[in-house]
Design goal:
Elements lengths: L10 E12 L2 E9 L8 E2 L2 E3 L6 H13 L7 E6 L10 E11 L13 E8 L10 H15 L16 H12 L5 H10 L3 E7 L9 E5 L1 H7 L9
Parallel strand pairs: 1-6
Antiparallel strand pairs: 1-2, 1-4, 2-3, 2-7, 5-6, 8-9
C-alpha cells in the first residue's frame, strides 16, 4: 500500500441531529457553543473524532459530552466535506440522526466545557446555526421526511402508548401537510401493526381516546417490503 502524501491532513468530526416530539411539536436538540469559532452560536451536538477512535464510538461519546444523553441508537446518513465548511481548515464531518421519546429526557445538560448549554428547539424556530449545520439539519430532516412515508420510524418519537390523533399529528408535523383523518386511520389500522389496548387517555378534559401500541414483533414478522403510510 502506498504511503499517504504528507499534505493529507484532514480532520474528522461527528455532528448529531436528535429529533424529539413533545406536545404536538417536533424539536431538535441544539447546543450553545462555548469556544471559538462561533462562540455563543447554537449548533448541532458535535465535535472532533480522536485519532484512535472509531466513528461510531465517537458519535456516542460526543453526544454524551455535549448533552449528557447516553445509549441512543443513531443512524449515519451523510458525509459533509466541502472546502471552507470550517474556518480552521479542512474538516470532514459524518452526520448522524436519532429519533427519541422525550419522556424523561427533556432535561439535558452538557458534561463538557465546549458546550455551554443544550436546549430543545422547535424545528420551525431554529436560528441560523454555526458552520454549515443549517444545511446538515435540512439534509437530515429531508431524510426522515422521506423515510417516514414507507418505514414506521415515527413510532420512535411517540410515547409507548399513544392515540391515533397523536400519531396523525406527528405525521402532519413532519410532512408539513394535513392528512385526511379517515383515510389515515384506515390505512394505519389495515397494516395490522398497531395493537389496540384496553385503555384510554387519562387526565384529559375532552372525551378520552383509545390507546394503541406499535407491535414491533408483528411488523418484523409480516413485513419485508416497503409500505406507504402517507399515500
Amino acid at each position: 500500500m502506498e504511503n499517504l502524501p504528507a499534505h493529507f491532513d484532514s480532520l474528522f468530526t461527528v455532528d448529531c441531529i436528535i429529533f424529539g416530539f413533545d406536545e404536538g411539536e417536533l424539536k431538535i436538540l441544539l447546543i450553545e457553543r462555548n469556544e471559538d469559532p462561533f462562540r455563543g452560536w447554537f449548533a448541532l451536538p458535535g465535535y472532533f473524532v480522536e485519532k484512535t477512535e472509531a466513528i461510531e464510538s465517537a458519535a456516542q461519546r460526543i453526544l454524551y459530552e455535549s448533552t449528557g444523553l447516553k445509549g441512543i441508537y443513531m443512524e449515519q446518513f451523510y458525509t459533509f466535506g466541502a472546502l471552507g465548511r470550517h474556518p480552521q481548515g479542512r474538516v470532514i464531518t459524518v452526520a448522524y440522526y436519532a429519533m427519541i421519546r422525550l419522556t424523561g429526557q427533556k432535561d439535558v445538560k452538557p458534561v463538557s466545557d465546549f458546550a455551554r448549554q443544550a436546549v430543545w428547539v422547535n424545528v420551525k424556530d431554529i436560528p441560523e446555526l454555526a458552520f454549515d449545520h443549517s444545511r446538515i439539519f435540512r439534509k437530515g430532516f429531508e431524510k426522515i421526511r422521506n423515510k417516514i412515508s414507507y418505514q414506521p420510524i415515527a413510532f420512535e418519537l411517540l410515547p409507548e402508548k399513544f392515540t391515533l390523533t397523536q400519531l396523525q399529528n406527528l405525521y402532519e408535523v413532519i410532512l408539513n401537510k394535513k392528512l385526511d383523518k379517515r383515510n389515515f386511520r384506515k390505512k394505519m389500522l389495515s397494516y395490522d401493526i398497531l395493537k389496540e389496548l384496553d385503555e384510554k387517555q387519562k387526565g384529559v378534559s375532552y372525551r378520552a381516546a383509545k390507546l394503541y401500541k406499535f407491535d414491533k414483533r408483528k411488523f418484523a414478522k409480516n413485513f419485508h417490503k416497503e409500505l406507504s403510510f402517507t399515500k
